[in-house]
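user: can you give me the structure for this one chain? tokens are fine.
assistant: on it. calling the predictor now.
[tool input]
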Amino acid sequence: MGVENNIPEGWKEVPLKEILLKRNQGVNTTTEKVIYSTKGHRVVKAQDILERKINFSVSDYVDRQEYARLSTHVKPKLNDILYSNIGSKMGNAAKVKSDFQFIIAWNVLRLQINTDEAEVDFLVQLLNSKTIRRAICSLNSSSTMPFVSGGVIELFEINLPPLPEQKAIAKVLTAFDDKIELLKAQNKTLEAMAQTIFKEWFGKHQIGDELPEGWSLVKLGDILETYLGGTPSKSKPEYWENGSIPWINSGEVNNFRITKGTTLITKLGLEKSATKLLPKGTVVIAITGATLGQYSILEIESCFNQSVVGIVGNNKIKSSFIYFWIANNIHAIIRNATGGAQQHINKENVNSFEMIIPSDEILNKFQSAVEPMMDKISNNEFEIQSLTKTRDTLLPKLMSGQVRVNNIKQTIDA
């Protein structure tokens, strides 16, 4: 049985197949010898299905001939659900909200819903809930790669409220999603505006050019403090248990902004290891492996591991300038990475990199223009974090009937 059967009156427990009109597995593009083309049609993969939406910007492409041949059985329709049922991203679900011409890859399942029985948005929320994801993923039938077949998923039982209540639940939860997406879009716009200002003011001056009066060429480490992180010993539980100090690994640097730690360490763990507690506004760069060259900003005080370098601003050069300077120069910084499969740079590579610093007047003008944007981005990120936590707390209670829609006070604008 997929879910607990202690459900409210009027709800029913049904296998997913009872509310499906059709199910398709995506195409194995390797077997089908698909020819990739930047001018063709999109191929949505499991890794494109994130946070209840489809990220078309990172999809692969197939040429038009292959698309025409394959689209008859793997072309999703508006309001279908795409579900990643194979691999490390298994368990993510998203609704098809657009009429983009695309097909789905081998690690994606297409679910066409009988909308007389079920609300699509309700099912997307249900499938993305932690309880359901864990339950379905526990049915993994492969020892080499996580995999749950479409047939197994069809037999998975869910609690299904009457259709009007499904729609009411979906409305509450998707209101959170819509607000989160709005804030994320606003942050992308704000960052793009600040990036445009940076490029217009500073992008035309390159190392080796004759610089305007008052400008200078300096090594980063001569004007800014940099710090390499560290990891408290994992064999010392007193460094980790009941910790209160945020600590991040290099994977966290993939995030747009860093608003929480990967985990928490204790004060003793900080004192007895090489890690450093650096202030909000520190610009962090991942310096090794798969995350090499990723960068972000700490929105909280945090420590980090030895695969991260932190750059701390000062009264003259603030994090707003450092961040966009790194954004525009990161490829040059990591160009001389060494190592075989595990490419890396070190703190000295960062320290020795040359920076063009504008005059105090221009620098102050830029920072005054951009810092309000950065502050707004920071505030939005914390609001996103709060909304996400509220939604994720509310979701399982609504899905189980523990909390009914009529009994909750909506906490965000619909």
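assistant: here you go. DSSP finds ten helices and 20 strands in the chain. The first strand starts at residue 12 and ends at 15.
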